[in-house]
Structure formats: structure tokens, C-alpha cells
Specification:
The chain is of the alpha/beta class and about 375 residues long. Helices cover about 30% and strands about 20% of the residues.
Length: about 375
Amino acid sequence: MGRTKRVFISDIHLGDERSMTTANPYCWFNKNIPILAHFLNDQLKSPDVKEVIILGDLFDEWVIPIDVDPLVSIDTICCNPINKLVIDRLKDLATSPDVKLSYVPGNHDMSMKDSGIWETRQFMETTFPGIKFICSSTVPLGSFVVGPLVAEHGARYCLFNSPDTWTVTDSCLPLGYFISRMVASKVSNTGKRESSICILMNFVKEFMSSQDFVKDMFTSIAEDAGLALGDRFKLAGIAGYPDTLTIADVSNRFGNLVCNWEKTSGKIDIATAMISDAGNLQFAATKTYFHAGSDTNIVIFGHTHAPIMNKFYLYEPGHGGGYMHNVPCRQIYANSGTWVDDSDKGCTYVETEEVRGEQRHYVRLKSYPGNDCLDEGYVNT
């Protein structure tokens, strides 16, 4: 039958050694390292997998307390001996003659240097010879496209996490970077595990109707983290920034975020951008790819850490079909979830399979270990 399957994973968030060995570890990914290494080895040995696609946030340069020196290179993460199991398996996949390895950049692993995404590309292609690095711009954006399927990280549709090309010269760091660092400070200081993604989602829902939405929300997240407006971020080595900035300074710099978003061409509307930051990327996927005249009928995102699969059927209930396993879908949106230690849903991924004899393209949301199928659908080809 040959190799007919592609495997999509995202949001692994490999961290540096200090994030794992400090008194109150603030990294998101540690205990699941051997689980991911085993999963990658399974794909390498599988007789029907032809490609593994990582949809961003393999590395994490964001989750760092504000009073700790920032990460400016993913080399520091790759050299972390605790990550060796995963790094070695990725190298094996990259050099495999049977299974391709592709990578689409995310927001947490965007470059901090003047050389930007091109340095990241060079590092990835040198460290993992044979990897396909998918990025067609000077900012960390890319889309994996094959036939009617499109897959990407998804942060570009989020107000606080999309690459910001207007606030600071020579940088594309969005406000979400600074939010992540404030939440990391809270974890480091209290020992209480919290995710900046979950905190951001909750605060977006609370403040999205506020007149000074951005500043009010940013200040409230700082207060929730036990930080004062005069506390300083260490930023040495990050392109476009001085060595330190206060929380108030950062808030003021991003004060025009909504206005800048709305007047920039190529962006989705601000309401959808806020809904995306609140954890729902389906609307962004629908507006971007499922519009009239589009040839795309399968979209796979990451970013939200929430594994989900939404199927839009060719037939509505009562019209000769229904929401049944053997009914073809018009379109499918899936989110690959995450591999972080504290994920409510465990480790998840999306598998697609082209069965030419049936003229079907299957999409399956699965969990690991066990490879249990959480949901499944297909489109006709």
C-alpha cells in the first residue's frame, strides 16, 4: 500500500537547562521528553508514515522570568542535555531516507536577533540536515501546503501573538512575548504551575470590551503575576530593544496595537484576532481558507494547545446525510494540541491519510501513548 500518512505535531516547547533546574522550574516541557522521543521513533519505524510536520513552537524562547537574561538563540535549547533524547530522534528523522521531516516556525521560537528568521533557518538546516524549513517571508510565518490541505502554527491570527512588524524597529516580537515572561516570573516566584496561554485566554475574555483594552489587560496580568509597573524586563541581546525596559514602558510601546492591526493590510478583523487569542482559531481558519472559491478543504493549526476537530458536512441532518462516521465532510478544521507536561488532554497529534482507492483524504485527531483516535473524518478527493 505504501506510505500514505502524514503526522502533524506542534507546541512542544523545549526549554533551556536553567528553566528545568531552578528551584521552581518554569519550563513547560520536561517529563514528557521520553514520551515524545518514543513517539518520534515510532514514526521513524512506521511503514506507512511518509512525513512528520512540526507546526511551530518546537523550541521556547519566551517562557523566561523578566529578571532573567533572555534567550537569543535556540542553540542554547538544543545544547540542553536534558533535551538530548528528542534532539537525537529529530536528527534521525531529518536524515531518514523514508520519512521526511518538515518544520513551520511558531511564535515561541521566533528569532531574537537582527538576522531574524534566516538565522533560524540556517541553524535548523545545519542541526537537522535534511529538514524542510517552511517559511517564505522575513518574519516567522509559513504554511505547509499539499493539495487541498493547509497546515500552519496559527499565531498569525492572534492579536497578541502575531509577529509585530510595526511597534519596534528591527523586531517582530509581539506583546505576547512579554506576557509569557511575566507569567514565567509568577511561576518562578511562587512554584505554582500556570500557562501564559491559559492566562491570556482568560484575560482576553474579561477585557476585550474595555476602551483601553491592551493597556488594561497587560497591567492586570502584571498585577496577577505579583509585579509592579516599575519592574524591569531584562532584554539584552534582543534586536530593537535596550538592555532593560519597565513593564510600564512595554505597555506604552504597544498602546497602539489595535489601531496598528486594523490599518495593516492582510490581517483578519480585530474581533476574530481577539477570539483567536481567546483560544478559538476556527473562525480564523474559516475566514482565511474556507471562503467561497477556495480549493482548501482541510486546515490544521496548532498554537492554542487545545486539540480539536470540527467537521463541516456535505449534508445537513434530515437532508440525506447527517453527522455520521461514513458521511464525507465538505471541510475539516483540526488543531494538533500540544505535548507540554500540564496539558489537560495529554499528548496529541493529527494524522492524515490519502487513500486513493477510496478517493478519500482522512483526518484523525489522536492521542499518545496508545495512538487512540479521538475523532475522525474525511473529505472526498
